[in-house]
């Protein structure tokens, strides 16, 4: 069966008290609406339609090609919102799923089951409900004596008796498309607010003797809708629990999942151990058997296997296998550490490649540099890569020993097997196997290389 989804996202979200449209507030690193779109994709066959209104331009810009959009202006209620998609969708689908975009915990599987229920339903609507003691302002599901669904009553118009009802309208529906496009025009205007409620379609169906099916959900958490920042934090925590749970089931150890913050796109190999207060953001990919944290922030980075990263920050960086990093190391964009590199405290690396076995143990800055295998970068070394106008490159060979507090004034090439004396200010290229000292550094002798590697 051909099916599409309409996601309602035109409301202002007044209670968020934000200049950012509600549906763009992030949860586990992705806008609220991304989570709703993901769930929808699992349950429908055609491209979804998002109804936008408040903050329409920002929401559309974020959506790009992932959805079609229609503008609802002014916003006259959830039924009116769905009506805006009629001209785009009428006659094109068998089923239409309608969801609110502020329920990011709703699972794709749940919507899939809802679609399956509607496929078997002789009537025009299947909907999601939940039984809960705390009604959270949700509409109440009114049933007849025979147990069949009769209507949805919004909290503020409910009678005291109806307020006692524990079955709530979650806000997920699957409609017979042809029936829906006709029924929307029959929704009465709500006398109190002058709005058209989608929930009134239920009564329209049952009054015509048509059956409305309810899938009663058992996971209350999935139904949390976000209206305030307190709800946002509640959902963030729930989403985080879901994500950490999945990684643990896949073989990742977490000493304290509650203080481990992993965004949705992050991949982690088995037997990696995450220590408390670790943040993994963006498109980060981590291999196997690493030990990460405590107190580590990693964004958009790639990490091989068996690395140790203690109390460090990295962004847009790459580590090969067996790298030992930190505490207090910082890798910026384009930093690439080869296998068995050791990078100690207070080092910063950006746009540079450190080949296998490089040691950079103590406070140094390396930018726009390539460093050959097994070279030692002494404490306090700085690649002076910026002359106030342009960045320049530093190339350091293999088996080099850069003495403590060396200033490498780029552009510069240091040959294989060379050495710099402590405090050298190197302004000219250094030949292979040469010792330079002083300020500016001058060659004082030719060296015998200890390493067998030539
Ligand atoms: C709605 C339901 C209620 C249900 C609850 C679950 C209606 C009338 N009521 O109430 O039964 O229990 O959700 O969370 O549907 N929107 C538009 N255009 C509008 C109005 C709303 O796009 O004109 C969007 C909002 O952006 C939001 C969603 O529809 O994403 C729901 O609107 P909201 O005002 O939050 O409805 P509730 O009062 O929570
Ligand atoms: Ca709501």
Describe this structure in words.
- The chain has 454 residues and is an alpha/beta fold.
- The protein has 2 domains: 221 residues, Spore Coat Polysaccharide Biosynthesis Protein SpsA, Chain A, CATH 3.90.550; 212 residues, 3 Solenoid (UDP N-Acetylglucosamine Acyltransferase, domain 1).
- The chain is built from 9 helices and 40 strands.
- It has a 17-stranded mixed beta sheet that branches.
- It is elongated and about 100 Å long.
- The chain starts with a strand and ends in an 8-residue tail after the last strand.
- 45% of the residues are buried.
- The model has no long low-confidence stretch (mean pLDDT 96).
- The structure holds uridine-diphosphate-N-acetylglucosamine (UD1) and calcium ion.
- Calcium ion (CA) binds next to loops.
- Calcium ion binds next to loops.
């Amino acid at each position: 069966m051909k099916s599409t989804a309409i996601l309602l996202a035109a409301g202002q979200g007044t209670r968020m008290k934000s200049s950012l449209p509600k549906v763009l507030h992030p949860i586990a690193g992705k806008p609220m609406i991304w989570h709703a779109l993901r769930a929808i994709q699992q349950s429908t066959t055609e491209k979804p339609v998002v109804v936008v209104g408040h903050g329409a331009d920002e929401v559309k810009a974020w959506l790009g090609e992932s959805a079609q959009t229609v503008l609802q202006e002014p916003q006259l209620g959830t039924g009116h919102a769905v009506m805006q998609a009629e001209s785009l969708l009428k006659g094109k689908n068998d089923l239409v799923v309608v969801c609110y975009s502020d329920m990011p915990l709703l699972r794709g599987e749940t919507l899939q089951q809802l679609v399956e229920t509607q496929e078997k339903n002789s009537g025009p609507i299947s909907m999601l409900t939940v039984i809960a003691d705390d009604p959270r302002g949700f509409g109440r599901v009114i049933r007849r004596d025979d147990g069949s669904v009769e209507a949805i009553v919004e909290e503020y118009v409910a009678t005291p008796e109806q307020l006692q009802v524990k079955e709530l309208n979650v806000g997920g529906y699957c409609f017979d498309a042809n029936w829906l496009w006709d029924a929307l025009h029959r929704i009465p205007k709500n006398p109190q607010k002058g709005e058209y409620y989608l929930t009134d379609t239920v009564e329209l169906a049952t009054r015509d003797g048509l059956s409305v099916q309810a899938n009663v959900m058992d996971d209350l958490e999935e139904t949390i809708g976000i209206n305030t920042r307190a709800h946002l934090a509640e959902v963030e925590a729930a989403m985080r629990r879901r994500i950490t749970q999945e990684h643990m089931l896949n073989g990742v150890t977490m000493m304290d999942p509650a203080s481990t913050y992993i965004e949705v796109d992050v991949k982690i190999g088995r037997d990696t151990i995450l220590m408390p207060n670790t943040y993994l953001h963006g498109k980060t990919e981590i291999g196997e058997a690493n030990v990460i944290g405590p107190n580590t922030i990693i964004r958009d980075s790639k990490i091989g296997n068996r690395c140790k990263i203690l109390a460090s920050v990295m962004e847009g960086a790459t580590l090969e296998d067996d790298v030992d990093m930190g505490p207090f190391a910082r890798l910026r964009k384009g930093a690439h550490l080869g296998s068995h590199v050791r990078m100690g405290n207070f080092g910063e690396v950006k746009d540079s490649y450190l080949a296998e076995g490089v040691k950079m143990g103590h406070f140094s800055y390396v930018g726009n540099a390539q460093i050959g295998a097994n070279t030692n970068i002494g404490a306090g070394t700085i690649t002076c890569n910026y002359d106030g106008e342009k960045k320049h490159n530093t190339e350091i060979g293999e088996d080099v020993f850069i003495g403590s507090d060396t200033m490498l004034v780029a552009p510069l090439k240091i040959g294989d097997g060379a050495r710099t004396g402590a405090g050298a200010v190197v302004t000219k290229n250094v030949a292979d196997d040469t010792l330079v000292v002083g300020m500016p550094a001058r060659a004082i002798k030719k060296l015998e290389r200890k390493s067998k590697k030539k």
